[in-house]
Amino acid sequence: MSELTIFPARLHELTIGQLADLPHNQFLEVDINLDQLTDWVKKARTKLDAAKEQRFGNAARNELHNAGQDFGTTYLVEGSLRVKFELPKSVSWDQKQLAAIAARIASGGEKVSDYMDVDYSVTETRFKNWPPTLQEQFAQARTVKPGKATFRLSLNQDEGI
Question: Which pTM value belongs to this model?
Answer without folding.
Answer: 0.68
